[in-house]
């Protein structure tokens, strides 16, 4: 044990201010007996036994010491702390540190987030090794295909957006003559408009808790233009990306583990993590891989009823459209069925629509769930719909700016008041992210100086993403034992890998899920980071991984050939 | 009732896909009887009675309808839904909406945040009235002295910081020759350094979950320079302001309401709100107004023991230094006692140090708690200290940028892993806020081109704040029945008002806390917004308000004279 650790609860040093807790001989003996009596016979190895005894001793002792340090024992037979330590705590590896994993909120312990999980930590280690020992691995760089983070892989930001942000960050530029040579005229005009909408033009001030009213007006106008149905600035809550908005809704809806949220499987693990952190239950519904990750309301109904029969109050349905990690885009008719289902069952529809700009096939288009509901004649009183949007995705990919919003409709005034209160506790989201959210919902228009360059940048990115998606999809489908659905949208492919028995056995032998084993071997052989399907959920006995389509286009051929070579070698190594 | 609302659970329209739940005649009768039986005789007015019956009917019906929509009743005697509605639900104003306040997370309902509470909503309404009907109130503008939001009241941002932010937002500026004319040479150099520390110079990419490593290095260097003790970039978690960092620690430490956090009273209500949201208990300790908001460890000890005797596991101690809302700065000796106390009691020391730059008196200075602990010879193994810092306060006051960090020390590797995991779920904080946090901890140095103008801006702001604090403190102390402690630091004064009996009675008669009543009358008479002491906590029977020192200096004389005139009139109106 470490003497330093020991000092955390009892101090042996002669510093004058420190109280040394004193414990009677009888008490120390009692403590020792008490924990020895509690040893369960079911612990197999002597190591387990030792750990158990140690832990038990630690707990009994520490709880005793906490109380003994508060009240002096009346007995005159006292042991100095060292003596106590030698009699009872000798078997404890350390005394009570103030915070241990065992004493943390169990909801935190339960939460998992595979997108930045073990495989990524492993990749970061390899990256450091590449830097300190070039040539130490059979690749030159780590390719992070684990996360939808376009600019980390070389995607350039949209110029107009960044011009406006720079001007809003440093408004004195607007008074300088040189500025006209450096910025487009419409970015200057837009910056003025935005500043005029911010009280005192203070981009460094906390805004209204929902976000700057002028920016919410712009976003509502953008939503209305997109959907053809009105949108209200009072329904917009600007947030630091979509994740905090999802957390806010989970915090609001989940009371105990008897409250459930219907989530797709596979799902984006923000949902499972957020539900775990807020102490609710994830009620899974399966997307049908055979029909291109189809979403059947019969499956929703079945899972809802099963959950209800177990006493779960299902409060909301999460739909991710376009899909993450699955990349499908819902058909309009399917969306109508989902709206009808939520309306009939009294479920809040939590619509993750952050990939609304990422559609890569001609036969699909994005429709917001609010638009679908309104087009069916359903209004505020019929059902509650929350739409999440983010500046991190789309063609803009501004992940680092942490901008986003949720549009909430169908909630009563007193419920909205509670949402507002929770938003207020966090004061407001960052103003640059707020400005960016207003820009992505109101980009340059025909006639604006930036319009053509803006459209060229936007189309360039989206067309390239579509080509990359198709190239990767074809490549995966060409590999032995791999099947990959069409990448209709979002930023990911979620191929299924039919692993040979021997690979599954090898994974099991090393305490790995088979897909995690595959992904780890891929990383070690190629430097490519993908996330095992087990991090998203999948039909038991099937194995997948999620791979982003985000590496720059000129790198795609090399990635494909490295991936294919690895896969062939892996399959031949473990062939039955 | 609204037909629209009714449609939320039962659909009467002829759309083909909708199942109409069918209910037997017996069941409908049973439902009616059941809720009539439950009517309590204690409801006073007929309105209350009607609401109760309505609510009860709604609940009984809705729970029945949810189950009946899943399984067809076996009885052949069936009523169509309209008949059911007319028999049982006629008294219900609406059928089950999916989310009501009663079905929200009770932790959310419990949470309060006075800084943006009722008084502010009232002020916003008055502001709108001033705009739509100029002259409708006896003042021209609303003066928001409720919140530490310097730039909303005209404080200008530090030029160097904004230059760097603009360049980082739009890095192509760095390649343009005109840029040298618009930006200081050291801001250009700093922007390059920052960009070089960000992988791919991608300010639009998600960073490491703790924040960009290069920026954390800069912050750690700044902390080390401030304290004279080393700081490690791995201990820094960059966050969107200090609030999310506080939430993160509360989420980690609080398991049930049996876990408590020692918090000062008066306190900044983020703490009470966060503890409520995370389901723990606030264990109060009182600051002593008579000794300048003194903090006695005997009081800490007393409250800790009282909480423990009630079965509460106290996990951490919150110290706000400089104090919010109380403005005191702790003496070094007092800090040493607090460190000793936390170490002996095994408490995490949560040190809110966001006002570390805001010290206005010569006889006090800021010492971080980590520095104090290290200077006592205590290291990582002795106690856990978390220091919260923010870009929103100090002389920079960049609230809208939502930047901040926490420095965590004294946690074991496995606990840190859990903190990292929670940070990962939210991906990262906004990069502009991260950059700004690195700048405030590493401002221009002697010899840098910006140094002199930077120092002039900084000193100008801090000296002005000190003058404003003193002027307001003197003004409050000159008012009848008001006493105000010295404003040693932070951005607030927390004067005590000795209200006449008649004022207290008038407040009680209108269901107001007496200090809330005073603040409301102040607002209506002067347009000045301050927060009632009851939002922060105070010794029962005493009344206070929190007023920021942030209005621009040229407005202070007018504010003081308006405040005084109001106070005199209020006191004479309610004099005994």
Question: How are the SSEs placed, and which strands pair?
Answer:
The structure is a homodimer of 576-residue chains.
Chain A: H1 3-6, E1 23-24, H2 25-37, H3 46-68, E2 78-79, H4 81-87, H5 106-110, H6 118-132, E3 143-144, H7 159-169, H8 179-182, H9 185-196, H10 213-227, E4 236-239, H11 242-253, E5 259-265, H12 270-277, E6 281-286, H13 297-309, E7 313-320, H14 332-345, E8 348-352, H15 369-375, E9 385-390, E10 404-409, H16 413-425, H17 431-440, H18 451-477, E11 482-483, E12 492-493, E13 496-497, H19 501-509, H20 514-526, E14 528-529, E15 531-532, E16 545-548, H21 556-573
Parallel strand pairs in A: 3-14, 5-6, 5-7, 7-8, 8-9
Antiparallel strand pairs in A: 1-2, 4-10, 9-10, 11-13, 12-16, 15-16
Give structural notes:
- Two copies of one chain form a homodimer.
- Chain A is of the alpha/beta class and 576 residues long.
- Chain A has 21 helices and 16 strands.
- Among the domains of chain A are: 3-103, no CATH class; 114-154 and 455-573, Aspartate Aminotransferase, domain 1.
- Chain A has helices spanning 3-6, 25-37, 46-68, 81-87, 106-110, 118-132, 159-169, 179-182, 185-196, 213-227, 242-253, 270-277, 297-309, 332-345, 369-375, 413-425, 431-440, 451-477, 501-509, 514-526, 556-573; strands spanning 23-24, 78-79, 143-144, 236-239, 259-265, 281-286, 313-320, 348-352, 385-390, 404-409, 482-483, 492-493, 496-497, 528-529, 531-532, 545-548.
- In chain A, the strands form five sheets. Chain A has a seven-stranded mixed β-sheet with strand order 4-10-9-8-7-5-6, sandwiched between helices.
- In chain A, helix 2 (25-37) packs antiparallel against helix 3 (46-68), helix 19 packs across helix 20 and helix 20 packs across helix 21.
- Chain A starts with a helix and ends with a helix.
- Mean pLDDT of chain A is 85; it is low at 1-97.
- The interface between A and B is large, with 123 and 126 residues.
């Amino acid at each position: 044990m470490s003497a330093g650790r020991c000092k955390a609860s009892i101090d042996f040093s002669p510093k004058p201010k420190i109280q040394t807790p004193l414990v009677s001989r009888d008490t120390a003996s009692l403590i020792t007996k008490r924990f020895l009596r509690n040893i369960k016979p079911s612990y197999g190895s002597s190591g387990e036994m030792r750990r158990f005894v140690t832990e038990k001793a630690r707990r009994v002792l520490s709880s005793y010491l906490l109380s003994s340090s508060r009240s002096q024992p009346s007995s005159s037979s006292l042991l100095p702390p060292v003596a106590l330590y030698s009699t009872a705590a000798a078997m404890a590896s350390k005394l009570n540190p103030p915070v241990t994993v065992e004493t943390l909120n169990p909801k935190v312990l339960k939460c998992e987030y595979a997108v930045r999980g073990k495989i990524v930590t492993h990749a970061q280690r390899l990256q450091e090794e590449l830097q300190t020992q070039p040539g130490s691995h059979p690749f030159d760089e780590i390719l992070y295909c684990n996360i939808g983070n376009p600019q980390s892989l070389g995607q350039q930001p949209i110029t107009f957006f960044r011009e406006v942000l720079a001007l809003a960050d440093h408004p004195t530029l607007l008074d300088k003559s040189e500025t006209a040579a450096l910025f487009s005229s419409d970015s200057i005009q837009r910056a003025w408009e935005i500043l005029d909408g911010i009280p005192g033009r203070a981009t460094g001030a906390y805004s209204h808790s929902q976000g700057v009213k002028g920016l919410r007006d712009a976003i509502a106008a953008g939503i209305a233009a997109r959907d053809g149905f009105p949108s209200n600035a009072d329904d917009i809550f600007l947030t630091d990306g979509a994740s905090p908005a999802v957390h806010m809704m989970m915090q609001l809806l989940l009371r105990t583990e008897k409250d459930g949220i219907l989530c797709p499987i596979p799902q984006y693990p923000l949902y499972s993590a957020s539900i775990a952190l807020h102490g609710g239950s994830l009620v899974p519904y399966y997307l049908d891989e055979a029909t291109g990750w189809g979403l059947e309301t019969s499956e929703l109904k079945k899972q809802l009823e099963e959950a209800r029969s177990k006493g779960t109050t299902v409060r909301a349905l999460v739909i991710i459209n376009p899909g993450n990690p699955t990349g499908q885009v819902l058909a309009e008719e399917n969306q109508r069925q989902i709206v009808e289902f939520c309306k009939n069952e009294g479920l809040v529809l939590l619509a993750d629509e952050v990939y609304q700009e990422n559609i890569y096939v001609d036969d699909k288009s994005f429709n917001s769930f609010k638009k679908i509901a309104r087009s069916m004649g359903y209004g505020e009183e019929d059902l509650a719909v929350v739409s999440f949007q983010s500046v991190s995705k789309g063609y803009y990919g501004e992940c680092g700016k942490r901008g986003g919003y949720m549009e909430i409709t169908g909630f009563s005034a007193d419920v909205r008041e509670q949402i507002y209160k929770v938003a207020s506790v966090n004061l407001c989201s960052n103003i640059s992210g707020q400005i960016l959210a207003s820009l992505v919902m109101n980009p340059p228009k025909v006639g604006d100086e930036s319009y053509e360059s803006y459209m060229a940048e936007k189309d360039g990115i989206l067309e390239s993403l579509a080509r990359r998606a198709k190239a990767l999809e074809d490549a995966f489908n060409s590999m032995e034992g791999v099947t990959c659905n069409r990448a209709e949208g979002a930023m990911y492919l979620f191929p299924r890998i039919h692993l040979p028995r021997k690979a599954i056995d090898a994974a099991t032998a090393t305490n790995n899920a088979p897909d995690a084993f595959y992904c780890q071997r891929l990383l070690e052989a190629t430097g490519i980071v993908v996330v095992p399907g087990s991090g998203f959920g999948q039909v038991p006995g099937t194995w997948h991984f999620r791979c982003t389509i985000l590496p720059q286009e000129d790198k795609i051929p090399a990635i494909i050939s490295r991936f294919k070579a690895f896969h062939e070698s892996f399959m031949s190594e473990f062939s039955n």
